[in-house]
Design brief:
Elements: E1 20-25, E2 33-38, E3 45-47, H1 58-71, H2 74-78, H3 80-89, H4 98-114, H5 116-126, H6 128-146, H7 152-175, H8 186-215, H9 217-232
Antiparallel strand pairs: 1-2, 2-3
Length: 234
Protein backbone atom coordinates (compact mmCIF):
# COMPACT_ATOMS: atom_id res chain seq x y z
CA UNK A 1 0.00 0.00 0.00
CA UNK A 2 1.35 3.37 -0.98
CA UNK A 3 1.94 5.92 1.78
CA UNK A 4 2.58 8.87 -0.56
CA UNK A 5 0.19 11.85 -0.30
CA UNK A 6 -2.31 12.54 -3.02
CA UNK A 7 -0.77 14.19 -6.08
CA UNK A 8 -2.72 16.04 -8.72
CA UNK A 9 -2.60 14.44 -12.15
CA UNK A 10 -1.64 17.62 -13.95
CA UNK A 11 1.44 18.49 -11.87
CA UNK A 12 3.45 17.91 -8.74
CA UNK A 13 1.43 20.17 -6.37
CA UNK A 14 0.39 18.37 -3.23
CA UNK A 15 -3.13 19.03 -2.02
CA UNK A 16 -4.46 18.51 1.49
CA UNK A 17 -7.89 16.87 1.01
CA UNK A 18 -9.22 18.35 4.28
CA UNK A 19 -8.00 21.92 4.06
CA UNK A 20 -6.80 24.13 1.27
CA UNK A 21 -5.55 27.70 1.60
CA UNK A 22 -5.33 29.98 -1.38
CA UNK A 23 -4.52 33.64 -1.79
CA UNK A 24 -6.64 35.76 -4.07
CA UNK A 25 -5.97 39.36 -5.12
CA UNK A 26 -8.19 42.00 -3.55
CA UNK A 27 -9.98 44.07 -6.19
CA UNK A 28 -9.80 47.14 -3.93
CA UNK A 29 -7.64 50.10 -5.06
CA UNK A 30 -5.03 49.34 -2.40
CA UNK A 31 -4.30 46.01 -4.05
CA UNK A 32 -4.07 44.16 -0.73
CA UNK A 33 -4.54 40.43 -0.49
CA UNK A 34 -7.21 38.45 1.30
CA UNK A 35 -6.60 34.93 2.53
CA UNK A 36 -9.34 32.47 1.59
CA UNK A 37 -9.52 29.40 3.80
CA UNK A 38 -11.58 26.47 2.56
CA UNK A 39 -12.65 23.96 5.18
CA UNK A 40 -13.86 20.40 4.61
CA UNK A 41 -17.49 21.04 5.45
CA UNK A 42 -17.75 24.81 5.30
CA UNK A 43 -17.78 27.55 2.69
CA UNK A 44 -14.61 29.57 2.06
CA UNK A 45 -14.03 32.33 4.66
CA UNK A 46 -12.14 35.54 3.95
CA UNK A 47 -9.81 37.09 6.54
CA UNK A 48 -8.80 40.73 6.12
CA UNK A 49 -5.59 41.75 7.96
CA UNK A 50 -6.21 44.08 10.93
CA UNK A 51 -4.71 47.54 10.57
CA UNK A 52 -1.93 48.29 13.09
CA UNK A 53 -2.50 50.94 15.79
CA UNK A 54 -1.76 54.49 14.57
CA UNK A 55 0.83 55.22 17.32
CA UNK A 56 -0.51 58.72 17.75
CA UNK A 57 -3.27 60.91 16.43
CA UNK A 58 -6.48 60.38 18.37
CA UNK A 59 -4.57 57.99 20.61
CA UNK A 60 -3.06 60.97 22.42
CA UNK A 61 -6.57 62.24 23.12
CA UNK A 62 -7.26 58.89 24.81
CA UNK A 63 -4.02 59.29 26.78
CA UNK A 64 -5.17 62.72 28.00
CA UNK A 65 -8.57 61.28 28.97
CA UNK A 66 -6.96 58.44 30.97
CA UNK A 67 -4.61 60.99 32.56
CA UNK A 68 -7.61 62.94 33.84
CA UNK A 69 -9.40 59.79 35.03
CA UNK A 70 -6.35 58.68 37.01
CA UNK A 71 -6.03 62.16 38.48
CA UNK A 72 -9.64 62.10 39.64
CA UNK A 73 -9.54 58.58 41.09
CA UNK A 74 -6.14 57.68 42.55
CA UNK A 75 -5.26 61.36 42.78
CA UNK A 76 -8.40 62.20 44.72
CA UNK A 77 -7.85 59.22 46.98
CA UNK A 78 -4.36 60.49 47.78
CA UNK A 79 -5.91 63.55 49.39
CA UNK A 80 -7.36 61.37 52.15
CA UNK A 81 -4.34 62.23 54.29
CA UNK A 82 -5.64 65.81 54.47
CA UNK A 83 -9.05 64.60 55.63
CA UNK A 84 -7.41 62.27 58.16
CA UNK A 85 -5.41 65.13 59.62
CA UNK A 86 -8.57 67.23 59.94
CA UNK A 87 -10.51 64.39 61.60
CA UNK A 88 -7.81 63.84 64.21
CA UNK A 89 -6.98 67.49 64.94
CA UNK A 90 -10.60 68.54 65.40
CA UNK A 91 -12.00 65.37 67.02
CA UNK A 92 -14.58 65.40 64.22
CA UNK A 93 -16.15 62.10 65.34
CA UNK A 94 -15.88 62.05 69.13
CA UNK A 95 -14.73 58.78 70.63
CA UNK A 96 -13.45 57.33 67.36
CA UNK A 97 -9.87 56.03 67.43
CA UNK A 98 -7.17 56.94 64.94
CA UNK A 99 -7.16 53.33 63.74
CA UNK A 100 -10.77 53.63 62.63
CA UNK A 101 -9.98 56.73 60.60
CA UNK A 102 -6.97 55.03 59.02
CA UNK A 103 -9.18 52.05 58.17
CA UNK A 104 -11.32 54.28 55.94
CA UNK A 105 -8.36 55.02 53.67
CA UNK A 106 -7.34 51.38 53.48
CA UNK A 107 -10.92 50.35 52.81
CA UNK A 108 -11.14 52.47 49.67
CA UNK A 109 -7.96 50.95 48.20
CA UNK A 110 -9.05 47.40 49.00
CA UNK A 111 -12.47 47.85 47.44
CA UNK A 112 -10.95 49.30 44.27
CA UNK A 113 -8.91 46.12 43.80
CA UNK A 114 -11.52 43.63 45.03
CA UNK A 115 -14.06 44.94 42.53
CA UNK A 116 -11.70 44.29 39.61
CA UNK A 117 -13.23 40.94 38.51
CA UNK A 118 -16.70 42.46 38.46
CA UNK A 119 -15.51 45.54 36.56
CA UNK A 120 -13.70 43.34 34.03
CA UNK A 121 -16.85 41.29 33.47
CA UNK A 122 -18.90 44.46 33.02
CA UNK A 123 -16.42 45.75 30.45
CA UNK A 124 -16.60 42.50 28.48
CA UNK A 125 -20.39 42.30 28.53
CA UNK A 126 -21.46 45.93 28.23
CA UNK A 127 -18.42 47.85 27.03
CA UNK A 128 -16.02 50.43 28.41
CA UNK A 129 -18.50 53.32 28.51
CA UNK A 130 -20.96 51.54 30.79
CA UNK A 131 -18.16 50.49 33.15
CA UNK A 132 -16.86 54.05 33.38
CA UNK A 133 -20.33 55.48 34.02
CA UNK A 134 -20.86 53.00 36.86
CA UNK A 135 -17.59 54.21 38.36
CA UNK A 136 -18.60 57.85 38.00
CA UNK A 137 -21.91 57.15 39.75
CA UNK A 138 -20.33 55.45 42.78
CA UNK A 139 -17.49 57.95 43.13
CA UNK A 140 -19.79 60.97 42.98
CA UNK A 141 -22.24 59.32 45.38
CA UNK A 142 -19.38 58.60 47.79
CA UNK A 143 -18.08 62.17 47.93
CA UNK A 144 -21.50 63.79 48.18
CA UNK A 145 -22.58 61.22 50.77
CA UNK A 146 -19.44 61.78 52.86
CA UNK A 147 -20.27 65.49 53.08
CA UNK A 148 -23.40 64.59 55.09
CA UNK A 149 -21.82 61.87 57.27
CA UNK A 150 -22.17 62.30 61.03
CA UNK A 151 -21.22 58.80 62.21
CA UNK A 152 -18.08 56.81 61.53
CA UNK A 153 -20.01 53.94 59.91
CA UNK A 154 -21.40 56.41 57.40
CA UNK A 155 -17.84 57.39 56.54
CA UNK A 156 -16.96 53.71 56.14
CA UNK A 157 -19.73 53.26 53.59
CA UNK A 158 -19.21 56.51 51.69
CA UNK A 159 -15.55 57.53 51.65
CA UNK A 160 -14.45 53.93 52.18
CA UNK A 161 -16.56 51.34 50.34
CA UNK A 162 -18.47 53.47 47.84
CA UNK A 163 -15.49 55.56 46.76
CA UNK A 164 -13.36 52.43 46.38
CA UNK A 165 -15.95 50.74 44.18
CA UNK A 166 -16.20 53.80 41.94
CA UNK A 167 -12.43 54.09 41.71
CA UNK A 168 -12.13 50.42 40.76
CA UNK A 169 -14.69 50.63 37.96
CA UNK A 170 -13.08 53.77 36.55
CA UNK A 171 -9.58 52.33 36.69
CA UNK A 172 -10.43 48.93 35.21
CA UNK A 173 -12.60 50.51 32.53
CA UNK A 174 -9.85 52.88 31.39
CA UNK A 175 -6.69 50.80 31.83
CA UNK A 176 -7.15 48.92 28.56
CA UNK A 177 -7.86 51.95 26.37
CA UNK A 178 -4.37 53.35 25.78
CA UNK A 179 -2.63 50.11 24.65
CA UNK A 180 -5.12 49.75 21.79
CA UNK A 181 -3.76 52.92 20.15
CA UNK A 182 -0.02 52.33 20.40
CA UNK A 183 2.68 49.75 19.67
CA UNK A 184 6.14 51.33 19.57
CA UNK A 185 5.08 54.27 21.80
CA UNK A 186 2.97 52.23 24.18
CA UNK A 187 5.29 52.56 27.19
CA UNK A 188 5.46 56.33 26.84
CA UNK A 189 1.68 56.61 26.43
CA UNK A 190 1.02 54.42 29.47
CA UNK A 191 3.52 56.42 31.49
CA UNK A 192 1.87 59.72 30.62
CA UNK A 193 -1.59 58.37 31.45
CA UNK A 194 -0.39 56.94 34.78
CA UNK A 195 1.28 60.24 35.70
CA UNK A 196 -2.19 61.65 36.21
CA UNK A 197 -2.33 59.81 39.54
CA UNK A 198 0.69 61.69 40.88
CA UNK A 199 -0.30 65.07 39.48
CA UNK A 200 -3.84 64.67 40.78
CA UNK A 201 -2.62 63.62 44.21
CA UNK A 202 -0.36 66.65 44.50
CA UNK A 203 -2.95 69.07 43.19
CA UNK A 204 -5.91 67.83 45.21
CA UNK A 205 -3.98 67.48 48.45
CA UNK A 206 -3.24 71.20 48.33
CA UNK A 207 -6.69 72.13 47.04
CA UNK A 208 -8.52 70.01 49.63
CA UNK A 209 -6.66 71.62 52.51
CA UNK A 210 -7.47 75.10 51.17
CA UNK A 211 -11.16 74.24 50.72
CA UNK A 212 -11.47 72.78 54.21
CA UNK A 213 -9.91 75.87 55.75
CA UNK A 214 -12.08 78.33 53.82
CA UNK A 215 -15.36 76.48 53.17
CA UNK A 216 -15.48 73.65 55.68
CA UNK A 217 -15.19 69.92 55.22
CA UNK A 218 -18.76 69.46 53.96
CA UNK A 219 -18.36 71.77 50.98
CA UNK A 220 -14.88 70.42 50.31
CA UNK A 221 -16.44 66.99 49.76
CA UNK A 222 -19.22 68.42 47.58
CA UNK A 223 -16.86 70.40 45.37
CA UNK A 224 -14.65 67.35 44.90
CA UNK A 225 -17.71 65.31 44.00
CA UNK A 226 -18.83 67.87 41.41
CA UNK A 227 -15.34 68.02 39.92
CA UNK A 228 -15.04 64.23 39.76
CA UNK A 229 -18.43 63.91 38.06
CA UNK A 230 -17.72 66.67 35.54
CA UNK A 231 -14.24 65.55 34.55
CA UNK A 232 -14.90 61.79 34.44
CA UNK A 233 -17.98 62.13 32.26
CA UNK A 234 -16.32 64.30 29.59
Amino acid sequence: MSTQPNVARGGDQRIDPLRATTTEPDPSPAGSEKTVVAGHDSAPTEYTPVEPPPNGGYGWVCVAACFMINGHTWGLNSSYGVFLSYYLDNDYYPGVSALNFAFVGGLSISQALLVSPLATTTTRLYGTRVTLLIGVFFETLALIGASFAHEIWQLFLSQGVCFGVGMGFLFIGSVGVVPQWFTTKRSLANGVATAGSGIGGLMYSLATDAMIQSLGIGWAFRILGILAFTVNTK
